[in-house]
Amino acid sequence: MRTPLAAIGKQRAAPDRIGGVLPVTAAHVRLFLHVIAATIWVGGQFTLAGLVPVLRPLGADATRAAARRFNVLAWPAFAVLLATGVWNLAAVHLGDTSHAYQVTVMLKLTAVAVSGVGAAAHIIGRSKVALAVGGALSSLGAIAALFLGVLLHS
Which of 13, 99, 116, 125 is packed most tightly, with the most Cβ within 10 A? Predict the structure, then answer.
């Protein structure tokens, strides 16, 4: 059951809050790290996709240099996503969740794998088709994983 909007303000004004700030828990830190890493992984892919048409006229080296530089940020972010994802799963106790929740988790894990494998294929691909398919799979998998993560958290 969702909390009525009128009650939300009252919850936030509860006297157990120190200095008017909500308490920070390990769950908040875990979710924050997961979201910031997703911002880099997913948002970075879209940012780079938006920059490629501007970089292409400067030569293939410019596009490759931007992609390499993105990878310096993106792959550590993907590692953080995997680590915090495992941490999230450990905190949930999947055995105590509904079948629908478990199916959604499996779909999210599949989307994460598609995104990672697609990105790796895009990096090692040499043909235009390999680059396009890898990039598309990576982005579509990332979007799906992001949506499913929001679904799981709501």
Answer: 116
